[in-house]
Amino acid sequence: MPGRSPLVEFLAAPVSDGPVLRGTPRWLLIALVVFALGIWGESANQKALRADEERDRAETAQVAQAQAEADKIAANKATAERTEEKRKGLHCLSAWDGSNRSLVDQVKASLNDPGSFEHSNTWIQPVDKDGRHYIKMVFRARNPFNALMPAEAIGSVDNASCEATLKSITPLG
Fold first, then answer.
1. Mean pLDDT calculated for residue range 57-65
2. Per mean pLDDT, which of 8-12, 29-33, 138-142 is the most reliable?
3. Region label for 28, one of left (φ > 0), alpha (ψ between -120 and 50) or beta (otherwise)
4. pLDDT(18) > 60
């Protein structure tokens, strides 16, 4: 046909190669290739969405890793605090009044009137090389003349079992 451009002539001409494609117009083959690429190929939006999803997954993984590190640091800090508390002997003292139950029981057993015992304060030293803490407890109790007198008990406490050994009781004042 006269007046057609060479491109239109090329696209309209049938393929002459191979038995399967012989006689098929080139434009149809090109359309099939473009159609296939459109179905199987990714569009720019799909690529952007996939990139966003990958970025989100990477950020989520980073946040999870940071959280795991923070949890590990917190666990190490808590362990260090418990270790320090144990070294100081605080684990052997009551959270309620700061006394050592074993020492209180031994002091009460040595009093004339165990029911009059009133705990005032307890001091404990850090653990020594033998695994013991030295402890001092100030308390009040009734003496044989029925007067409420302050006294101090000195002893040591085993770091592992928190069992106290009473060494002395000294009246104060």
1. 91
2. 138-142
3. alpha
4. no
Sign of CA dihedral 106, 112, 118, 124: negative
Q: Please calculate the CA angle 119-124-126 and round it to the nearest 5 degrees.
A: 165
Which tokens hold the place of 109?
């057993």
Sign of CA dihedral 12, 13, 16, 22: positive
Q: What is the pLDDT of residue 7?
A: 60
Its pTM stands at: 0.55
The whole-angstrom separation of Cα 170 and Cα 56 is: 70
Enumerate the H helices of 22-161 as residue ranges. Answer: 26-40, 44-88, 101-110
Paired residues of 14 in beta bridges = 25
Q: Three-class SS of residue 61?
A: helix
> Per-residue pLDDT averaged across 148-171, rounded?
95
Query: Cβ(114)–Cβ(126) under 8 Å?
Result: no
Structure token pair of residue 25: 């117009």
The distance from CA 93 to its chain's CA centroid, rounded to whole angstroms, is 27
DSSP, res 98 = S
